[in-house]
Amino acid sequence: DTGVSQDPRHKITKRGQNVTFRCDPISEHNRLYWYRQTLGQGPEFLTYFQNEAQLEKSRLLSDRFSAERPKGSFSTLEIQRTEQGDSAMYLCASSQVEGRDEQYFGPGTRLTVT
Amino acid sequence: GDSVTQMEGPVTLSEEAFLTINCTYTATGYPSLFWYVQYPGEGLQLLLKATKADDKGSNKGFEATYRKETTSFHLEKGSVQVSDSAVYFCALNSGGYQKVTFGTGTKLQVIP
What we know:
The complex is a heterodimer of chains A (114) and B (112).
Chain A: E1 5-7, E2 10-13, E3 19-24, E4 31-37, E5 44-50, E6 53-57, E7 65-68, E8 75-79, E9 88-95, E10 104-105, E11 109-113
Parallel strand pairs in A: 2-11
Antiparallel strand pairs in A: 1-3, 3-8, 4-5, 4-9, 5-6, 7-8, 9-10, 9-11
Chain B: E1 3-6, E2 11-14, E3 19-21, E4 23-26, E5 32-38, E6 44-50, E7 56-59, E8 62-65, E9 75-77, E10 86-93, E11 100-102, E12 106-111
Parallel strand pairs in B: 2-12
Antiparallel strand pairs in B: 1-4, 3-9, 5-6, 5-10, 7-8, 8-9, 10-11, 10-12
């Protein structure tokens, strides 16, 4: 079990550019989540997938954000026309379907928009 | 909506001191409660959990008891070590899709 992996770990981009992050969940986990964590705060929920279906999106997820999970395996989070306010740590987590199992988090992708 | 309130940090303790980090919550229904830990430069790791009232979660010498009557889930450790220095997050989930709601985190620094 290799755990949840995310790529890249760090991304520096200029304002207005598009960025894409990838998350590979634990292989047997059906549910996949994206969170955003800003400095000094706890993670905030962005969106959730069960298999390939995106079932919930937070109000935090503006139209510039899009997430996909083709074939119910890895997921990508794309931010278009980045803004300085998008600078944060983007965390991916996965869990199993049954019960209220804990979510397992990846190491995160730290985005810096200059 | 769901919310978690935890004591503000940073908390600075000497090695072998007793640790308490307070956490209270607001939620609908009967949430599961968690403590996550984030070591410097690393991702979130589950420290312990409790899924129903009066359950006690424990791991690595840390404990927390699910108190429904006071809606609390305080984290305790009898003797902290320098290696416990990290940020601790109290969290809950109660939604049908298990969205986790986190507190703002409490930074713990243990000095030798």
